[in-house]
Amino acid sequence: MDCMSTVDTNQALRDDVRLLGAILGDVIRQQVGEHAFDTVEKVRSLSKRARGGDEAAFDELRDVLAAMPVHEAVPIARAFSRFLTLANIAEQHHRVRRRREYLRDPAAAPQRGTLKDTIPPLLEQGISPDTIVETLASLDIELVLTAHPTEVKRRTLVQKYQRIAETLARRDVPNLTAHESRDAREALEREILSVWKTDEIRRKRPTPVDEALGGFVVIEQILWNAVPEFLRELDRDLQDILGRRLPANCGIIRFGSWMGGDRDGNPNVTPDVTQRVCRIARWTAADLFLQEISSLRYELSMIDCSEELRKHVGDAREPYRALLSKVRDKLIATRAHHAAILDGRPAESSDIYIETEQLAEPLWLCFRSLVDTGARSIAEGRLLDNLRRLATFGLTLVRLDLRQESSRHTDVLDAVTRHLGLGSYAEWNEEQRQTFLLRELEGRRPLIPHDLPASTEVRDVLETFRAAAQIGPSSLGAYVISMATDPSDVLAVALLQREAHMTSPMRIVPLFETLDDLRQAAKTMDALFSIPWYKKHIQQKQEVMLGYSDSAKDAGRLTAAWELYKAQEQLVETCRKHDVHLTLFHGRGGTVGRGGGPTHLAILSQAPGSTERRLRVTEQGEMIEAKFGLPGIAIRTLELYTNATLQATLAPPMKPSDSWRKRMEELSDHACGAYRGLIRGDHRFVRYFREVTPEVELGDLNIGSRPARRKPGGGIETLRAIPWVFAWTQSRMMLPAWYGVGQALQSIADSGGMDDLVEMCAKWPFFRSTIDLVAMVLAKADPRIAQQYDERLAAEDLHDFGANLRKSLGDTIDIMLEVMKQRDLLENNHVLRRSIDVRNPYVDPINLLQVELLRRIRTQNETSPEIRDALLITINGIAAGLRNTG
Fold first, then answer.
1. How far is CA 234 from the centre of its chain?
2. How many CB atoms are located within 10 Å of the residue 435 CB?
3. 8 Å CB contact between 384 and 366
4. Which residues are tagged catalytic?
5. Between β-strands 399-405 and 507-512, what pairing exists: parallel, antiparallel or unpaired?
6. Angle at 72 between CA 66 and CA 76, to 5 degrees
7. Using CB atoms within 10 A of its CB, is residue 670 exposed (0-12), middle (13-18) or buried (19+)?
8. Alpha helical stretches, state H, 530-657
9. pLDDT tens digits for 535-553?
10. Quick count: other Cβ atoms within 10 Å of Cβ 182?
11. Rounded Cα distance, 745 and 790, in Å
């Protein structure tokens, strides 16, 4: 019998959670007192009984928390919030543990998303080993780290949590001595005490530079070692399955960033910030490679070498050390150069590394020499790891994208044309704009005068392009245009780059976000590709970004998913028509309401042909920690991205039948109508939203450098997608991810189409993944908790409004179960079901406490720092309990 099936695979997780909870309890006793501990235990007991169906216990729990003074509420909120965070750490570590169990057990079936799971079906389909290896080696996957305000944990605490996870890993060592076991427990006690005594609330809003530094920490501490280890594992698996090797220069994964470059609606991202972030990244890369080269120089003590290497080092007795000494000295000079510029001092630049190839050249020389002299195994150790790091990170660590909203470019050109007496660019139609832009692009005269009178906003845009020209192409990635609608939006950026004397222009990436823009995306790109100047300019390569967050906020999750799918199909076809190689850039968030979901499932449910070797995806906010916070998790994440992209390239999902497409159109129309009818058509909605969620109070939570709104004031349309989703998550309604879905499914079922829905759910990967993700959100929603927000925070005339929404929630769950042919929303996802069930008794009290705190703030005008802190702790706690929150 398979040993994996005879063991309780979750016992170790339960043991970890129990241990961490016990230590936390001891800390509460020591730091707050026995009374506080007893109160925590009373609340926990009531909450568990309430979750078990005891309505009297729920009422008592609510009353106990409602009567609690603020000074008592703070430690209660902290206790439950801290426990949920510790449970998250234990679960993350358990994922690593389970992966290791798979790898250790030769009898275990291949883990989903590994090469051993992916390659055999490809071979069965007649795809040759050569094709598989060539495709794998040519994959170009770029994960773009962004600092959207969904990560509510302070970086100081994140680092403490990592140490707790590392200590849990130490306890897993099978031959641990009694002293070592005691040391590990004492280390946990110290860390949890340190966590308790650390302020979890950010007292200052982070700057864009702070956000960038947080991203760099993830690279330094996790990804720097995880990437070469992942490629080493990939290489070994490829040998085991096909007897082939990855090419030594194979990178596969790269990293980009928006931190310090995303200026869309964020006035804090200035040209100086962008330059400083790029410089810090280069300093960090030089420092990391300096450490590696110093270690490599110590290792490569061999005295024989190839003739090629000998020509570079003369008669040096230890040729590798002689060569690497020069490399080390040059890296020291490079690091000092960047440090001087950051400090505002004169910088020596005569003998430094500028481009990645300059550092790669001597390392490849060492590699070839070792292979030529019979030391391949040495060449494929630390040296190969660093060559692969160079392929992944380069000397810039990440490539920074710049993003700006299209109207800001229009404002610049309008200021120019008005100043030159040419009229108002902003008032011209699309044909007039294109004529003007192409005339300037095809000509040579400078357009923008140095003495252009300009507003602060116009100057900022012009200075950003000048800064980009100074930074240089190796540090920069794409120039993303948000709210792109027409070809002129792209041509305008091309002209502004030329005017800034960018000798190596950034690739220009239109971002299509709203429902209308998605529907016009292929038409816009077709028009662009039909312009001879533009077709020559892009050299057969085009990247297009699709916005998942704003499209879902605009039209609802179901409609957005379908429109994104169709946009991908149409863009693929348009690019094939013009012989252009397409890279789709998926702007996904953490939650289902913003396009989030399991990585492997998300890639394999894309439109056929939309993932051909190339993929760009944002990793936003909290998901950076969730996917890359531990080495084992990071390796698994890279593995899932790689294998899903390989599978989607060689064996793309089936195309939907015409009948399925027709049904999907009907579903989309019904869902969008219901969703927009609620958020746009009901005059009570905005008032209801603001009364029953902490949307207004979220502005006090210093979780990002970017304002919550694109523009001051206004209604839902000005609110960014992140706080929109975050606020509904806090109240446990999760409305953006499911509203409209139930109404759409029911309308098709009522018209006799239930069999079609069941068939689509069973056989169409796109539809199944969409339904599964909505089911996951519905499993986290809680109408009983949401009702408390209604009854205690909303005006009486809105109570029926909330009751109708909760009825829609229940109706949606019922029709979803019918379509899925399941009795429980998570019938096939036992891990998530257990995780939610474990967390609910700890999240519920935080919700009830939050309701009471909001009531006091709003009706009793309590504004003390203590009640504000208590509220923010509840916001953090609910986010920790529900995981993907924004």
1. 23
2. 12
3. no
4. 148, 553
5. unpaired
6. 85
7. buried
8. 532-538, 548-555, 557-577, 599-604, 622-628, 631-650
9. 999 999 999 999 887 778 8
10. 11
11. 27
pLDDT band at 576 (very low <50, low <70, confident <90, very high): very high
CA angle 392, 269, 872 (to 5 degrees): 95
C-alpha pair distances (Å), 420 with each of 409, 413, 668, 763, 828: 17, 11, 48, 60, 66
Enumerate residues 6+ apart whose C-beta is below 8 A from 661: none
Tell me how far apart the alpha carbons of residues 877 and 47 are, in angstroms, rounded to a whole number: 15
| pLDDT tens for each residue of 648-707 | 999 988 899 999 999 999 999 999 999 999 999 999 999 999 999 998 887 665 555 555
List of residues 6+ apart from 280 with CB closer than 8 A: 209, 212, 213, 216, 338, 342
What's the confidence (pLDDT) of residue 78?
92
Q: Closest by alpha carbon to 269, among 417, 137, 408? A: 408
Tell me the average pLDDT across 738-756: 96
Which structure tokens are listed for 291? 């450490």
Q: 684-704 burial, b if ≥16 CB within 10 A, otherwise e?
A: ebbebbbbbbbbebbeebbbb
Nearest in space to 551 (alpha carbons), one of 675, 449, 451? 675
Q: Read off the pLDDT band of 603 (50, 70, 90).
A: confident
Is the pTM above the cut of 0.85? yes
Residue range 174-202: mean pLDDT, rounded: 91
Residue 190: closest CA among 14, 13, 26, 15: 26
pLDDT band at 233 (very low <50, low <70, confident <90, very high): very high
Tokens of 725: 């989703």
* pLDDT value for 700: 62
Burial class of residue 93, CB neighbours in 10 A (0-12, 13-18, 19+): buried
Distances (CA, A) of 142 to 478, 529, 614, 837: 12, 24, 8, 35
Q: Where are the alpha helices (DSSP H) in 472-505?
A: 487-499
Tokens describing residue 459? 């100057």
pLDDT at 150 over 50: no
